[in-house]
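Input chain follows. Return structure tokens only.
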Amino acid sequence: MPIIKSAKKALRQTRSRAIRNKKKVVALRQLVATFKKQRNQKNLNQLYSLMDKMVKDKIFHKNKAGRLKSMFSKTLVNSKTPKTSSPVVKKAKIKNKK
């Protein structure tokens, strides 16, 4: 436990910030869950907004937020494109030369 007055205050500040940050991380998880259930532009925009706020508050690094945004936008695009059957590729038989 801290003894110096400034260290005690720093501990209080750290704990309150940790609680505040945890709330934002939980909110992000909930938004991700709703996005996975219902992939649409509205949910994606909400995700983007929350991630940008988390970057501003230094909860996430900007590269991590960019990586997550890219991943979610790809899933949105992939969910909208129709699935086509892939062509069947025959494997060539390799003869053993001994």
